[in-house]
Amino acid sequence: KVIITYIPSDTIELGSQFPEFTVTIYNIAAERVRVLNTEPDEIDRYSRRAFWNLKNDKGDEVVSGTYLYIIETHGDKVERNKGRMTVIR
Question: pTM of this prediction?
């Protein structure tokens, strides 16, 4: 299980706000692997964390490799953060 934490760019402005957000995960070939958007199983907006069970949208386990992710907030202030992670099995 992987935990991805959303850290807003302006923590003072968003300090007491907990916007809804989604995390989209891509493989290194930029193919979409998984979208995390279900509360509370995949998204906990109050702790600003997303939980990925290392499975793709079809339910198959992903292989070792580098994965890219985009975190997008929804609501009054829309923000997009991105990052990468490596899965080693």
Answer: 0.85
- Residue 37 CB partners (closer than 8 Å, separation 6+): 22, 23, 43
Measured torsion, CA atoms of residues 30, 31, 37, 40, in degrees rounded to the nearest 10:
-100
Residue entry with tokens 């930029």: 30
Q: Between 1.20.120, 2.60.40, 3.40.50, 3.10.50, what CATH number should domain 2-87 receive?
A: 2.60.40
Of 28, 38, 13, 10, nearest in space to 66 by CA = 28
pLDDT one-digit tens code per residue, 23-63: 999 999 999 999 999 989 999 988 889 999 999 999 999 99
- Name which of 48, 54, 59, 61 is nearest 22 in CA terms: 48
- C-alpha 63/C-alpha 47 separation (Å) is 28
> Could you tell me the sign of the dihedral formed by the alpha carbons of 57, 62, 65, 69, in that order?
positive
